[in-house]
Design brief:
- The structure is a single chain.
- This protein is mostly helical.
- The chain has twelve helices and no strands.
- Helix 8 runs parallel beside helix 12.
- The longest helix is centred in the middle third of the chain and has 33 residues.
- The radius of gyration is 25 Å and the shape is elongated.
- About 6% of the residues have low confidence.
Length: 273
């Protein structure tokens, strides 16, 4: 058996080493938008199993509140606040309550380890899951708004503004719900925080603000969904002030950016532990 020096072989060992190093290099990290779409589709397919109970519970709750408040409120600005608050409550039910439960269970069961191994940005995981859950609120929000307008005799002319209210208010509330689930040390605590947030959206968003004490109004102004409710309620008038509507929507958008950034930070923090 003869030994041949490596130098005389075609493509010496240095070339082989260079080839190994070249193949060992990792590919570029996935971009945000394609990763977001992929996570959104995966979460949408996963949550599709529970969409019928989700739509029924969220819509039935808001419609029941409308019927109950019909015996207390006759019309005017109070009716506008009740209808707008009940419609946005469908979004709050999913974004605060269910999303907090989902991320709390995901953290407790070790599901975050799966996402941590994927070459996707953390923001794509948070935004994809939030967008998938929020997508199921669209039918319930529309049904609640139409039913409320018919019940209180409000016009349906500017119902299209929900196309902006739903995603912007949903983004603000989804960030909070995801942060609750990711920061809570136990899934039971995440569930409690989500339910408390939804209860705050119910009490502070549906009840007419004119009948609230000053301290409660201040707390109402701190709730992100309040500005979605205000934006929708302003469109029921004969001549809406669109500057105020856009201002309320801008506040929702700003809070949504901040809350989703906090949720992304919370995801990074939970994924490395």
């Amino acid at each position: 058996m003869s030994v041949v020096p490596a130098e005389v072989l075609p493509g010496s060992a240095r070339a082989v080493t260079g080839t190994v190093r070249a193949t060992a290099e990792l590919g570029p990290r996935a971009r945000l938008w394609p990763s977001l779409v992929a996570v959104y589709r995966a979460q949408l397919s996963r949550a599709r199993v529970a969409r019928i109970p989700l739509l029924f519970v969220a819509t039935f709750q808001s419609v029941g509140i409308l019927i109950m408040m019909r015996g207390v409120v006759d019309g005017g600005s109070e009716a506008e606040a009740v209808v707008a608050g009940s419609a946005v409550l469908v979004v709050a039910f999913v974004a605060l309550n269910l999303l907090a439960q989902y991320f709390g269970q995901l953290r407790a069961s070790g599901g975050l380890d799966h996402y941590a191994t994927l070459p996707v940005p953390p923001a794509a995981v948070v935004l994809g899951a939030a967008g998938a859950y929020a997508s199921f609120t669209v039918p319930g929000t529309l049904v609640t708004a139409v039913f409320g307008c018919a019940l209180f005799g409000l016009p349906l002319t500017h119902l299209w503004v929900l196309a902006a209210v739903i995603p912007l208010a949903g983004a603000a509330l989804s960030g909070l719900g995801a942060a609750f689930g990711l920061l809570a040390p136990r899934p039971e605590l995440a569930t409690v925080l989500g339910q408390l947030g939804m209860s705050a959206a119910l009490l502070l968003g549906v009840l007419p603000p004119d009948r609230m004490p000053e301290a409660v109004r201040f707390a109402r102004d701190l709730l992100p969904s309040t500005y979605g409710v205000e934006a929708f309620a302003r469109t029921f008038g004969t001549d809406p002030d669109w500057a105020l509507v856009l201002g309320d929507l801008a506040v929702c958008a700003g809070v949504g950016v901040v809350s989703l950034a906090v949720a992304t930070w919370a995801y990074r923090r939970a994924a490395v532990r």
